[in-house]
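Researcher: Next sequence.
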Amino acid sequence: MAELIRDITLCILFAWALGLAAHFLRQPLILAYLVAGFIIGPYGTGWVHTRESINTISELGLIFMLFMIGLEIDLKKIVRAGRVILFGSGGQLVGGCLLGIAFFMAIGLPMGKGGFDALYLCIACALSSTVIIVKVLYEKRELDTLPGRITLGILVLQDIFAILFLAVQPSLDNLQISIVLLSIGRVVVLVAVALVLSRYVLPPLFHRVARRPELVLLGALAWCFLIGEIAEKLHLSREMGSLVAGVSLSTFPYALDVTAKVTTLRDFFITLFFVALGMTIPIPSLSVVGFALVIAAFTVVSRLVTTFVPLYLMKQGLRASLLPALNLAQISEFSLVVIQVGIAAGHLSTATSSAVSFAFVVLAVLSTFMITQSDPICRWSIPLLKRMGLRDLDHVGVDGEAHGDGHGAGRRIVILGFFRSASALLSEIERQNPSLLEQVSVVDFNPVVFSNLKARGLHVIYGDISNVDTLLHAGIASAEIIILSVPDSLLKGANNEKLVRHVRSLNTTAKVIATADFLSDVPDIYAAGADYVTVPRISDARELLSAIEAVDDSLLDEKKAELDQLLAERREVLP
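Model: Next structure:
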């Protein structure tokens, strides 16, 4: 016990020290944890060398990691997932696995007779990193964009796919239909028990202790280990049980509170898992490094093929098809879990496991850069793809004519960029002055906006508003009113000040209305040539003040009824 405590102390100290270095160098923390484990592990300094300590630390970390992954899986979102996400994720997973099996068997990896290296690798390469993607997209404020939502939807369905694989994995040595069905049946029993208990037993218990944070935390941990033990009794694994425990808790009312309470503990044990994983990575030979680079290259290429193609065939446009492919081009931390489970079962070699770990490290660094620079990469790639013969949504206009100069000419009002403010504006025009819609043209590169506006008979041009050619095609030169309704935080490759300068250089007489995120931006946008600048926070403040006054006058119910009636009359393009 004393040796285990010493080993955990070393894990945390080195993880913290290298985590600080990774933070200052803007590298993924997971990479720092793996390196920390390698340094103190048996292949590094040897300060932690006891196999029992490494296994205990790894299993605890893995159980908590899968429990938290389960908590973050929103089953309701999966049920509501649109056709694009369902078919996109299906194409990515099925295509990735088929390509993976074919490729890894072609290079000589075993598939059956005790060795399943090709199968585990194809599964590992089909999964993407939730930790890396969510972190970078959050920092870029792209989680709520269409490519961001598609990316997150595919990530959730990847997790479901991994759950199914973990259910079948114990039976790989004797893979018969009856055994597979038995394994799936055990999973169904486990999920049913967990869902019934989480729906009818846990809510009243958690309700009674909701004001006692320590009991909420203890209850969540007890639930995690209880379902893990039930899974063990069903000849599944504790790790599988912890994942199901998390998924079942994600559906009940206190999921958010439980997640908040468990997060700190989760971070502690996830750190231990990745440090323990780093301890198992031997000093690589040239062959292992070469194999890791092959795995990394295959992952990037296969992700581009299996993600881009389905989305492009569903007419999402080049940009909205390419961005999710770039976002997903890495190996998941869940892949490392799958590989570790395979090693424990004796299904694949340690050389393959080491190569996957190194490929994970390479892609963690590379994909962070790719996601950060995804917009410039798209701007460079799209013209190349067009020269290769791929058509974008701007190939044909709303009325069927080819996209070209003067395409938007004759429209008095041009809206550059389309987000929720523009959606609300069109709804308001439709409600108060429908004839004005005939004078409006919208320019945006969101395929959902393009198809919805086109279906409603509105004039819409597919294009990037930061591109001068797009502005020329949109008929900016002849417009009388030009509206920039997208805030700087959502604009890619430009901001409102730069856009106003572009617009003003093309049209010196139009009235230009722009948007400012910050009060300090207003003078700069006016100096760039804007005639009027809206600041959304001011209108929001007025609405909040009117709500406060309604409360003081005992008129809040009447105000709510007026708002409900107004919302019922609106038919917006974006929800």
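Model: Residues 401-569 form a domain with the Rossmann fold fold (CATH 3.40.50.720). Confidence is low (pLDDT under 50) at residues 396-406.
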